[in-house]
Amino acid sequence: MIKGALNRFRKGLSKSRNNVVGKLQSIFGNRISLDDDTLEKIEELLISADMGVESAVAITRNIEKRLKEEGGEATLESVLEVIRGDVS
């Protein structure tokens, strides 16, 4: 019984993760300009994915802090790397 519930939970998380990644890809393509508007879109997407406001804000700030060092642009993969690191 618990094993079945755990499997359903994992499947739901996988769908959420795939949904967030897919939306990021459709919005930004492969290169992302990390301006205020883009960071706001990422934050809204994370909130809409039920990350919670505090978590979404913290993750977005980490994206801004860690990736602005790359000249204000980043690849989708580098943004996802920050998100994965913060969610793990």
Fraction of residues in helix: over 70%
Largest β sheet strand count, sense and barrel closure: 2 strands, antiparallel
The DSSP helix count reads: 4
Along the chain, the helix and strand elements come as: HEHHEH
How far apart are the first and last residues' alpha carbons, in Å?
A: 26 Å
Q: Quick one: CATH class?
A: Mainly Alpha
Number of strands: 2
Q: Supply the CATH architecture.
A: Up-down Bundle
Strand content: 5-15%
- Rg, rounded, reads 14 Å
Q: What strand order characterises the main sheet? A: 1-2
Kindly report the average pLDDT value. Answer: 76
Low-confidence stretches at least 5 residues in length (pLDDT < 50)?
none
Shape: globular
Number of domains: 1
CATH topology heading: Four Helix Bundle (Hemerythrin (Met), subunit A)
Structural class: mainly alpha
Secondary-structure map:
Layout: H1 2-28, E1 31-33, H2 36-48, H3 53-67, E2 73-75, H4 76-87
Antiparallel strand pairs: 1-2
Helix pairs in contact: 2-3, 3-4
What labels would you give this structure?
Four Helix Bundle (Hemerythrin (Met), subunit A); mainly alpha; 2 strands; two-stranded antiparallel ribbon
